[in-house]
Amino acid sequence: MTESPVAKIAPEEAWEMLRGNEFGRLAFHLADEVHITPINYAIDAQDRIVVRTAEGSKLLGLTMNADVAFEIDEIDEDEARSVVVRGRAHTLEGHEAEEVEQLPLRPWVDTVKLNVVAITVDELSGRRFSLTRPWRHMIPED
Fold this sequence. Notes:
This is Pyridoxamine 5'-phosphate oxidase family protein. By secondary structure, the chain is of the alpha+beta class. It is built from three helices and eight strands, in the order E-H-E-E-E-E-H-E-E-H-E. It has one domain: Pnp Oxidase, Chain A (Roll), CATH 2.30.110.10. Strands 1, 2, 3, 4, 5, 6, 7 and 8 form an eight-stranded antiparallel beta sheet that branches.
């Protein structure tokens, strides 16, 4: 029997991937549309995904509808890995927002992002994909 090219990632490994990365994609609702945006993040002591954002459509969307999805990927020559989170976002204020200063979370783009948002994880799933990439023979070698 042939082994499946797709396998589930255990929750512990999915959390390890989340902690080991700092860039992902956040999907959120804004009115009757779904938006997705790249974003840098950190994981806090409560196992929440924490992001900084400026005033704008992302913060408005998260305020209007707290249901979000978040995703990260890793890929190498032979394998791709993906972790998807479903959760609820809320703005951190006061002491909670100040605690974020201890996390490795700084804007990658030189803009002011004063709002701190935490995503509480409701669902976590991960998959590992064995890659065959048959088109690789078409890439010229150096």
